[in-house]
Amino acid sequence: MAWNPLAELYEGRYAFAEGILLDSTVTEPAPKGEPAPAAIQPERSAAPSSAARADKNPKKALLLSFLLPGAGEMYSGHNGRATGFFISEGVIWANYVTWQIAGHLRRDNYVEQARLNAGMGTTSESDDFWRLVGLYTRSSGSGSDSYEDALRRDARNEFPSDPAAQDAWVAERLPTGNRAWNWTSAEAQKNFRDTRHSSTRAFQHAKYSFALAILNRVASVIDTQMLHRKDQKADQSSIDGPRLRILTDMTADGGGMLLVRSTF
Predict the structure, then answer these.
(1) Structural domain for 133, as ranges
(2) Rounded CA gap, 133 and 127, in Å?
(3) What is the pLDDT of residues 48-85, one digit of tens each?
(4) Together in a domain, 120 and 184
(5) What are phi and psi of 212, to 5 degrees?
(6) How many domains does the chain have?
(7) Over the stretch 128-162, which tens digit does the pLDDT of each residue have?
């Protein structure tokens, strides 16, 4: 009975192999007296990089990215993407440090201005205190430019019919000693206000870095999950890739035949 390779093919007697490309059909007679070679099934050559990436734990990558943007990408094997997040994180914190230094230097500057031009003898005061120093020309005395005058107006509103309570209320809040001030000129006071506002803006810019750091972490977390799904798809595509079918048999005259068929 004649050998029909097509019949053998449709009956499912071909061996299957993936990842090997052969561009010709080989027919080679087998030596007489020796059995025909068995069916050949080459091993699949999968893409190790995508397979290894797909096996990474996405939850661990998420946690690493939350702690340090780029760490999740590096754990997943995407070093190029990780480098981008590492650089952005470094820029964010360099920006924070730069504005913090600028804010403190400007603060030292306006405190020194108050010492030289307003007679201040203290440096460790709250921001609200320094705002009052820039707002009023002097701490004591009468007049609209005096802080004491503003305190007495507030005291009269608090204790309208009790002068003694008013005096006690003012005395409790009025800066004295090395906390008292009296500006030598309006220009010096204006320079103080400008420098203080510049220091406040610098500290505000530094706070923006925290928002940028949060956004960078959110972006890295999303990126790791998208990369994980992409790696899974790539690994699945490598499994479902081209397949090779090979069949060998012995002919009636003692020869051998080999049929190769590749599907894409």
Answers:
(1) 56-139+175-239
(2) 10
(3) 455 566 678 889 999 999 999 999 999 999 999 999 99
(4) yes
(5) -65, -35
(6) 2
(7) 999 999 999 999 998 989 999 999 999 999 999 99
